[in-house]
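Lab meeting, action items carried over

1. Structure of the two-component assembly. Owner: GW. Status: complete.
Input record:
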Amino acid sequence: MTTAISTTSTGVHAGFLRSVERFPDRPALWVEGATLTYAELYDRAAAIAATLQRHDAQQAPLTAVFGYRSATAFAGVLGALLSGTGYVPLKRTFPAARNAQILGRSGARAVIVDEESLLQLDEVLAGAAGPVVVLAPDVDAAQLAGRWPGHVVLGREDVLGADALEPSAPSPDEVAYVLFTSGSTGTPKGVTVSHANAQAFVEAASERYGLTEHDRLSQMFDMTFDLSVFDMFVGWSAGASLHCAPPRALLKPDAYIREQELTVFFCVPSTGAIMRKLGLLKPGAFPDVRYTLFCGEPLPQQVATAFRAAFPNAILENVYGPTEVTVVCAAYRWDDERSPGECLHGVVPIGDFFGTTSGYLADDQLRPVAPGADGELLLAGPQVSLGYWRDPERTAPVFVVPPGESATHYRTGDLVRPGGPGEPMRFISRIDNQVKIQGNRVELGEIEEVLRRETGVDAVVVLGWPRTDSGFGGVEAFVGSESVDADAARAALAGQLPGYMVPRRIHRLASLPLNDNGKYDRRALRERLEAGL
Amino acid sequence: MSIVEETDVRGYLCGRFAEQLAALGIAPGEEPDDLDLIAEGVTDSFGLLELIGDLEARFGIELDFEDLDPEDLTRLGPFSRYVASRARG
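Predicted assembly:
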């Protein structure tokens, strides 16, 4: 390795660059069946960055990375950052029109594209706001000749050497990444995270988990999902290696966990529930893993206890955080003795504030609720992101300075029960999952828990239905199993819950639909009800 | 609990996905043994989980996929043989 490394002490990638210096020959990334060392990954990224700089793509604040579980996707993220821009990920499993819309809204001047994603590029480039640099480092330039006139198209031979990179140190307030999340209506919202936000998160996570260069991390999350920021930047800061799950392993990760000798396994609870359904969580199955982490949706107690048995030597944590507050803002460490009693509605607590994040529980006027009362969780601190990309109208209602406060707080929309002395915070539901049924305030999560317990099925969603002027007339339930006896389940619920909380119908589906991030898609289920299904 | 043969599982799969298989130009009875249901776009990962749930309900069995290679989880022949072998216990 002769390339001089461009270091910076600022930026979400600063820790990666330190590891390139400390551990040049250690593995940084396993992807597509091959391993890249830190030096090799740096070289690829720096070469991409230098090429972007040569074409002045860094004059826009963002570079788009259009890749999926490929070396080019990871080198592209690092290359965008090294060139001096933030990154905005696209994903080829999204509809092309959505990628096109994100590309246009981002204002990116360059798209780094891996070989397989090229197939969708015609449609995606149609969304570009102006001419862009298309950099396809996996493909011969000759193969691209004549495509996309009006744009600058670069292939393998056009990529400069890593030593052509001009070092850049981002200022803390500059954008590190923008992730577009599905807005509840219309166009996606781009959560805009600065380098300072991301560094605050990486530092807090590094301190909490104490990962080292000997750790081997799972990489289950697509780059469009912010938990990938943990994998990449917390992992690489420690000098650990990242093991990008092949698409097949996302469905059935047991062999991947063993063969890659993972020490850290991080997934959404839905993946945990799938593993349980496939019969993969035998007691003692994965003795070598030292952390199992969950985030992204409520963690059912049943999944946590099955994981504790299958990963007997792993610390299990449920972490919580909206994308808007940079990945994680609360965490709960499972304890076999104490935790079963701390679960609420069969859901594992979210724990205590993480790192330098603080917050309080508020009423609908943003005033603190009375001690001990439930309220909406409001969050403040250095991880509170910059808001929604070029969208002040949608930023203002949720990034607020509450009365009597001076700092910007993010309104999570999550209803949380406070921890008493020595007790963790518990997630109850989305504020909008707390509904009025025939005038009674009902937490849908409570019904879901009883239904999970009675049916033994993890995949359960309850919705208010039908809509009335004051809320809902009743509730209906969906269970992800066709073998459940719906009548018996209704009868069992009727014995435990007031009549207005007993689902009028229990819809049995072989599995529940999931959204882009692998969470239960409540909106799709509501649409089924609206369609009379 | 009934005895489930490979041909039962395979027949069920081909019937369930008849439309998608026809769209790929595969005639009934000529499905290749190594047809990859996901790579060929016959179904997706969650469709596969739905399928597993339905197979369990239809054949009155409880499936455990621990011993199956992830590559084979999505291939018509290996999947059908595995389900049949598990059903026989």
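2. GW to write a short summary for the group page. Key points so far: Chain A touches chain B at residues 248-252, 254-256, 274, 277-280, 282, 480-483, 509-511, 513-514 (CB under 8 Å). The CA atoms of residues 81 and 112 of chain A lie 12 Å apart.
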